[in-house]
Write a structure and sequence with these properties.
Blueprint: H1 3-8, E1 32-40, E2 43-53, E3 58-67, E4 70-81, E5 84-96, H2 99-104, E6 108-115, E7 120-125, E8 135-136, H3 146-156, E9 162-168, E10 171-187, E11 190-201, E12 204-210, E13 219-224, E14 227-237
Antiparallel strand pairs: 1-2, 1-14, 2-3, 3-4, 4-5, 5-6, 6-7, 7-8, 9-10, 10-11, 11-12, 12-13, 13-14
Length: 238
């Protein structure tokens, strides 16, 4: 799931990714399907994250989270051009279908179109008040879902600093992740060494554990006011 997505938009789970335009060697991008065990606001859930090639240089990156009466989905279409990856469109939705989730989660759907010819992002659906105007795009702009992919790519490539500009939810925002050493993580019963990266923004914090040769974070944690809000742990990827 998208790290930043969870922080900045209720419609996305966590939970960042992105399309950084840094001068890095072009790393191979391959389709995958990953499953996560998730804990969302104290509720157990299952998550599936997948990447599929559409046609030419276009890809679809999706996240689906379901459990305890809650359902969250996020889909981003993006294109690759050499070392540049950029979002074309995204859809984020959430709803509580039953039980406690029906009370905690407000139904919401947000659609974003990234028009690179016009140089602006446009937002439709449940847009926050005062954030419906188009946002001017800059080279290298990303959305929160893509942050997962590009953050993994950049950490594995040794990029520093890890700085990004996200355009989503009717606004643009700078994101900076800091490396905080390595820690062991467990994936599919195996203990692996992961690079820990952290982004802190006021009362919200995102932590990602990234393992060499894995296309997705081994673990994603979002914290609010010092408390765990969403915790996703990778179970398998193929």
């Amino acid at each position: 799931m998208s790290l930043h997505a969870l922080v900045s938009r209720p419609a996305q789970l966590c939970a960042a990714a992105l399309l950084a335009i840094a001068a890095l060697p072009a790393l191979a991008i391959e389709p995958f399907n990953a499953t996560y065990q998730a804990n969302f606001m104290g509720m157990r859930a299952e998550a599936n994250m997948n990447l599929a090639r559409e046609s030419g240089n276009r890809w679809t990156y999706g996240l689906q989270v379901a459990g305890a009466g809650a359902r969250l989905q996020q889909t981003t279409v993006f294109e690759t051009n050499g070392e540049q990856w950029r979002p074309i469109s995204s859809t984020d939705s959430q709803r509580g279908e039953s039980g406690l989730a029906a009370m905690l989660l407000k139904r919401r759907e947000l659609n974003t179109t990234y028009d690179w010819n016009a140089g602006e992002a446009r937002f439709t659906g449940d847009v926050r008040e005062g954030q419906s105007a188009p946002v001017r795009l800059q080279p290298g702009d990303l959305d929160g879902m893509l942050m997962n992919l590009v953050l993994v790519r950049d950490v594995q490539a040794g990029k520093s600093p890890l700085r990004y500009r996200l355009v989503e939810d009717g606004r643009s925002k700078r994101q900076v992740f800091e490396r905080q050493g390595t820690e062991p993580v467990t994936v599919g019963g195996r203990t692996l060494q992961a690079t820990k990266v952290v982004r802190t923004d006021g009362r919200r914090q995102i932590v990602a554990w990234i393992v060499d040769d894995l296309p997705v974070p081994a673990r994603l944690l979002q914290r609010r006011d010092g408390k765990d809000h969403i915790d996703m742990r990778l179970q398998s990827v193929n």
